[in-house]
Amino acid sequence: MDATAHALSGSRTLWELVSRRAALTPGRPVLLQDERALTFGGLRERAERVAAGLYGMGVRPGTVVAWQLPTRIETALLSFALARLGAVQTPLIPYYREREAGFALRESRAEFFAVPGTWRGFDHTAMARRLGARGVFEAYDSLPDGDPSVLPAPPAEGASVRWIYWTSGTTSAPKGVLHTDRSLIAAGSCLAHALRLTPDDVGSMAFPYAHVAGPDYTVMLLLYGFPALMAEHFALPDTLEDYRRHGVTVAGGSTAFYSMFLAEQRKRPGRKVVPTLRLLAGGGAPKPPELYHSVVREMGVQLTHGYGMTEVPMITMGSPGDSAEDLAATEGRPPREMEVRIVDGEVRLRGEAVCRGYLDPAQTAEAFDEDGFLRTGDLGHLTPSGHLVLTGRRKDVIIRKGENISAREIEDLLHRHPAVGDVAVVGLPDAERGERVCAVVEQPPGAGELTLADVTAFLRAQGLSVHKLPEQLEVVDALPRGDTLRKVLKYQLRERYSGTVK
Does the pTM of the predicted model rise above 0.90? Predict the structure, then answer.
């Protein structure tokens, strides 16, 4: 991290970080969208006017404001306006509906709720009314406005909880995750330090800004002074034109995004999908080593992958200076400020980027051990060089006849098969074995028929132990995925195939 970025990373609050960057490079762009460009100076000035408008509506320091908005310049302005006021904001993914949104509004006791109106065919305002939300206002292309002279002083410290993010809640009610300005700055600093970007780079946000990766990525922009393209709706090949027009040098988001870029590259081998692109980077889901090698070989760009979660937005990150082996097979290294401890195979974490717990005190007590380390539920180990290798989730360990089987080990091997585009391995209830191993495969276009015998023969040839071989194969048109980082929803596969016997 260069000297300027290092100094800025010590900012106490997000608003202080915005102000310090705006003073350094006021005329440089920070956010790009369509034909629009918002500068660092413009971000500070316009966010203050929005803050004044919100203040006139009754928003005060500590007021809880929920917002469910797409990835737009206006969304970033609203979020930083709330940071200027010292309000507590709870971002909601735009794809949330009555169940998830209603739960978040009730649990956070939000006093205001910003929505986009009708977005992508769904009326968010009507949903907010049905939920009985308080202080509903639309903030898609127009924002509250006022005279900044009415504003109180900005927050002076960044250790108070001012952010409530929500876990996916795929198997139970979502958890409200408590973050501070300092925890988000620490996470963004880890990302910035690892990627070694420069003011000449152009980044991209292909994910929902309401995801915890939103401020994580924006902190990086503020530290290094370069812009990012915001994609309100990311879809390939349609979004590629914007990437080319703005000269994006860094793209990605998660494993699914790498695969999408690679699929586009394969349509025109030898011609880069984005001529300026030099790096794919992301996290949020496992990365098969074979995918890394394919991206580097076929796209001619580097790929660095990291490890994060809602509770800790950035834990480790691969760096362009790492070896190919480490970039392919690990999640990168943690920064000095992140303590990683492996306890009985589980990854545990302590550091400034770790959340302050959950809205529910009982969940907080359960999540942290006696030394203050967060129990992640992820399994892994550290290499001698300090790189973290994840081997799966505790719930992804399949116990077949008393033997533990790693789903990820099988998935990584199957990604090498030419007839496998993506794969998820799950354990299904089995009266005789306890659990049986089921591989659910999404095939690439033009692939031939794939049978269980093909799969087991391939895995045997890869040296996989016989007791780990799948006993069931399901071929699907598309694996079920979440709406944020496109993670595969394994619980849906378990529900779908638990009653099948083959």
Answer: no
